[in-house]
Design goal:
Order of helices and strands: EHHEHHEEHHHE
Number of helices: 7
Shape: globular
Largest sheet: 5 strands, antiparallel
Distance between the termini: 7 Å
Helix content: 40-55%
Structural class: alpha+beta
Length: 153
């Protein structure tokens, strides 16, 4: 199995419970486990093979800057000690850049992103990811929430 990557919109409190929310969804699909009370439904999409490092490359690309992990790193999100996954928040300036992408520019952004170090996706795979990121980022701004990425091997 590859690297699982989820993007979702949430408050800080909801993000801190993301593993619980996933467990609730597994239960709803018939898997065994403890039931989670009052876990909110979140706007989210699933993809594969992306981490904060590759997303930092996208942020540098959108700002037309050389990648600097000091400047383009995502924010480590709240995690439990039991979690085997990584949770990171997109910083607000990155979210703003994602929202501002023009639909006609997405294929060219995907082409440039596909050439950055660490990206193992084709341009054809990256365009839908960019569309999803823009949809989620727009929702995050409108709902006064944050955009997060969760990934786990």
């Amino acid at each position: 199995m590859g690297l699982l990557t989820d993007f979702f919109v949430a408050t800080l409190e909801e993000a801190a419970r993301y593993d619980e929310i996933l467990n609730r969804e597994d239960l709803e699909e018939g898997e065994e486990g403890e039931e989670v009370e009052d876990a909110p439904a979140l706007l989210r999409v699933e993809h594969k093979g992306l981490t904060g490092i590759e997303l930092s490359g996208l942020w540098a690309l959108l700002t037309d800057e050389e990648l600097s992990m000091d400047r383009h790193a995502l924010i480590i999100g709240p995690m439990t000690e039991e979690s085997e996954a990584i949770l990171e928040q997109f910083p607000p300036p990155f979210v703003t850049k994602i929202v501002a992408m023009q639909e006609d520019d997405l294929p060219s952004i995907a082409r440039l992103w596909a050439r950055t170090e660490g990206i193992r996706h084709s341009v054809e795979e990256l365009v839908p990811i960019l569309v999803d990121l823009q949809t989620l980022a727009t929702s995050a701004v409108r709902s006064n929430k944050n955009l997060y990425v969760w990934y786990c091997a």
